[in-house]
C-alpha cells in the first residue's frame, strides 16, 4: 500500500495521492495549516493580542469567554491555561447521556479546583437516542455527528445568553489532523433529513445548529470561535501528565474515548464495518509535527483500536442503551455502508461556491475552516 513519506497517510484514505517526492496531499493540508498558524514568537504574539481583545470585550460582564468541556485532555488543559491567561471562562458541557464516569469526574475536578462556573446542557435522552439510532440506520460512518453539531450549537447559545464574543475550542490540528470529508461530514440539513426518514423526526431539547444560527451568531452577534492551540506550542502527552500530577485528572484512553458512544463508533463501528482507521490521520499529523516518530505511529496503528475482550461487552451496552435489538443490529451491520453524499446536505453547495463561502466563513468564524484546506488539495 502506498504511504506518505512524511507520515503514515495511505491509500485507505479517500482522495489520497502522492506527488513525485512521495509526499501526500494530506501532508500538504497539514503544511498549509502550519504555514497559516505559525508557532513561536509570531503565534504567541497573535494569541496575546487575542487575549487582550477577549478581556476588553468581556469587561463588565460575568464571563469573557465560553469554553466547551468534555473531560478530555484538550478541553481540560485549556481550562487551566485560561486561568493562567487571566480569563474568566464559563465552562459548558453537553450531556447527551454517553459521557464516561471518568469524563464526568474530570470535568468536576477541573472546574472545582479552578473555581470556574459550569453549565451543563442536557438533551432529553429519548430524543438523543432516536437521533443516534436514525444515523445508525442510515448507515453512515460517523454516526456521532449529531453530538458534534449539538456541542457547537450550545456553545453559541451560551455565548449569546451571556453576551460573550469569544468561544475557545480545545481543538488542535497538529495532534488531530484533518479527517477526510467522506469519513466525518455532517450538517443540520443532513440531520433533518435522516431523523425524519429513520427516526420520529421530533426534536424539542436537541439544540439547533442551522446555517442561519451560525450566521446570526457570528455575523450579527459578532461571536467568534477560536482554537488557542493553533497559536501556541501544545503537547498532548505532556498536558495529560501535567493534569494527572496537578489536578487528580484521569486519562481515559484514545482520542475521544472520554465518551462511551464515540469510543465505540471510532474503535468498532467505523473500523470494522467501514474499514476506517481514524488513527492514521491523527498520528500522521503528530509525526509531521514531531510529536511522535513515524515508526511509533506505524506500531500503534498495527494494533486494533479496540481491545477484543471489550468489544462484545461494549456493543451489548451500546445496543441496549440505544434500544436496538440484536436482529435489527445484524440487519444494519450487514447492509451496505452509505456515504454522506447519499443524503441531502449543504456540502456540495459549499464546495461549488467555495470562493464565496471562504471569505464569508471568516466573518462568522475566526479563521478559514479546515474543510476548505482539504478542498484545495483534492
Q: Any overview of this molecule?
A:
The chain has 19 helices and 5 strands. It is mainly α. It has a single domain, classed as HUPs (Rossmann fold). A 5-stranded parallel sheet has the order 3-2-1-4-5, sandwiched between helices. Helix 4 (101-113) links the parallel strand 2 (89-95) and strand 3.
What's this entry about, in short?
This protein is mostly helical and 378 residues long.
Name its key features:
55% helix; 378 residues; five-stranded parallel β-sheet; 5 strands; mainly alpha; 6% strand
Shape: globular
What is the CA-atom radius of gyration, in angstroms? 20 Å
The overall number of domains is: 1
Total DSSP helices: 19
Numbering strands along the chain, what is their spatial order in the largest sheet? 3-2-1-4-5
Per DSSP E runs of 2 or more residues, the count of β-strands stands at 5
Strand content: 5-15%
Main beta sheet: strand number and arrangement? 5 strands, parallel
Helix content: 55-70%
Structural class: mainly alpha
Blueprint (SSEs and pairs):
Layout: H1 25-36, H2 40-57, E1 65-68, H3 73-84, E2 89-95, H4 101-113, E3 118-122, H5 125-138, H6 145-162, E4 166-168, H7 173-176, H8 181-184, H9 188-198, H10 211-220, E5 224-226, H11 236-247, H12 260-273, H13 279-288, H14 294-301, H15 308-322, H16 326-334, H17 347-352, H18 354-364, H19 370-377
Parallel strand pairs: 1-2, 1-4, 2-3, 4-5
Amino acid at each position: 500500500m502506498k504511504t506518505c513519506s512524511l507520515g503514515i497517510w495511505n491509500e485507505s484514505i479517500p482522495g489520497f495521492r502522492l506527488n513525485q517526492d512521495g509526499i501526500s496531499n494530506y501532508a500538504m493540508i497539514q503544511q498549509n495549516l502550519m504555514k497559516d498558524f505559525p508557532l513561536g514568537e509570531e503565534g504567541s504574539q497573535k494569541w496575546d493580542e487575542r487575549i487582550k481583545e477577549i478581556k476588553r470585550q468581556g469587561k463588565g460582564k460575568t464571563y469573557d469567554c465560553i469554553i466547551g468541556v468534555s473531560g478530555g485532555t484538550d478541553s481540560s488543559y485549556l481550562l487551566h491555561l485560561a486561568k493562567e491567561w487571566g480569563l474568566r471562562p464559563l465552562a459548558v458541557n453537553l450531556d447527551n447521556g454517553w459521557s464516561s464516569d471518568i469524563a464526568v469526574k474530570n470535568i468536576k475536578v477541573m472546574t472545582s479546583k479552578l473555581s470556574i462556573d459550569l453549565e451543563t446542557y442536557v438533551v432529553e435522552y429519548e430524543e438523543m437516542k432516536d437521533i443516534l439510532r436514525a444515523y445508525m440506520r442510515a448507515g453512515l460512518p460517523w454516526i456521532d455527528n449529531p453530538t458534534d453539531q449539538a456541542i457547537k450549537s450550545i456553545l453559541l447559545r451560551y455565548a449569546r445568553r451571556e453576551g460573550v464574543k469569544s468561544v475557545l475550542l480545545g481543538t488542535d490540528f497538529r495532534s488531530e489532523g484533518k479527517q477526510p470529508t467522506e469519513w466525518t461530514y455532517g450538517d443540520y440539513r443532513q440531520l433533518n433529513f435522516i431523523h425524519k426518514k429513520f427516526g420520529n423526526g421530533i426534536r424539542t431539547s436537541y439544540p439547533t445548529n442551522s446555517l442561519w444560527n451560525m450566521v446570526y451568531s457570528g455575523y450579527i452577534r459578532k461571536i467568534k470561535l477560536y482554537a488557542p492551540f493553533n497559536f501556541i506550542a501544545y503537547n498532548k502527552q505532556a498536558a495529560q501528565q501535567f493534569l494527572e500530577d496537578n489536578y487528580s485528572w484521569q486519562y481515559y484512553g484514545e482520542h475521544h474515548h472520554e465518551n462511551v458512544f464515540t469510543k465505540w463508533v471510532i474503535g468498532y463501528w467505523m473500523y470494522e464495518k467501514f474499514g476506517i482507521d481514524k488513527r492514521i490521520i491523527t498520528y500522521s499529523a503528530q509525526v509531521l509535527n514531531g510529536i511522535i516518530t513515524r515508526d511509533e505511529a506505524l506500531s500503534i496503528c498495527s494494533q486494533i483500536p479496540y481491545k477484543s475482550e471489550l468489544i462484545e461487552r461494549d456493543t451489548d451496552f451500546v445496543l441496549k442503551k440505544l434500544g436496538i435489538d440484536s436482529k435489527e443490529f445484524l440487519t444494519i451491520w450487514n447492509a451496505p455502508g452509505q456515504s454522506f453524499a447519499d443524503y441531502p446536505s449543504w456540502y456540495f453547495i459549499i464546495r461549488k461556491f467555495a470562493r464565496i463561502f471562504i471569505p464569508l466563513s471568516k466573518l462568522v468564524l475566526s479563521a478559514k475552516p479546515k474543510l476548505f484546506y482539504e478542498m484545495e488539495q483534492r
